[in-house]
Amino acid sequence: MRLKILSYNIHKGFDWKNKNYFLKEMKDFIRSSQADIVFLQEVVGKNEKYKDQGLEDSQFEFLAGEIWPHYSYGHNAVYDHGHHGNLILSKFPIETFENIDLSTNVWEKRGLLICKIQLPENDNLPKYFYAACSHLNLLHGGRLLQYQKIKNHINQHNKNVPFIVAGDFNDWNQKCAQVFEVDLQMQEVHKAVHGNFARTFPSALPLVCLDRIYVRNVNVKNAIVLGPLKTSKEIQHLSDHLPLFCEVEFNGA
Description:
By secondary structure, this protein is an alpha+beta fold. The protein contains 6 helices and 12 strands. The longest helix is centred in the middle third of the chain and has 15 residues, at 140-154.
C-alpha cells in the first residue's frame, strides 16, 4: 500500500510577503496534491483579528473540509486574541492523539502533535502507524533540546510500527541527522531519494533546507519539493515555505 504525504508550513494563510491572504488557494493546492496524510504548520485555530477582517479564523476546520474526514489540531502559541499550531489531516481514522509541549523559551511556543492512525484491514499491512507533526525552534540550542524530547517520545512507541515525523524543523545548519538518522534509525525522504535535504525556504528563492519528512519501517518511493515558484504558477503566491511531498510504501505486517 502506498501512502502520499505532504508537509507544508502555511504561514497562517498569508503569502511569502505576509501581505495577501490565500487560504482558499492553499486549500485547493493541498487538495490537488492528492495526499493521504497532510502535516501542516502555522495553522490558525482562532484569531479574533482575522474574524474582524472577514478572514477565515478557524483554519483547521476549513482546510479539512470534505476531503480529509479525520483531523487533529494542536495549538501551541496562545495569545489574547487566539492561537495557532500544527494540524494533521488524514483520510484514515485517527485512533488517538497527543499534543506535547516542546517549548524551550517564552518566545517560541512549540509542540509535537502525535496521532495514531488506523489502516484498512489487510493481512499484508500493519494495523496502524504513527504520524507526528512539529515546528521547531529558530535557534540551534533550543532545537538540540527538542530533538532529544522528540527522540524520547518516539522511543516510547513500538519500534516495529511505522512512524512518520514531518514539519518545519528550522534545521538550517542540518544538525538533526545524529538524532533522527543515527539514534532513531529513520530516513529523511528527500535525502533518501536525492542524497540531500530539500531546499524549501524562502519560497521566492529556495536556498535553505528547513522542512523534513522522517520515516521508519516504510519504503521511500519518491520525494519532491513542490515548486520552485518559477516553474509552478499554482503556488507562486503562497506561503514563505515550499511544500515537501513524498510517497512511501508500507512493509508487510
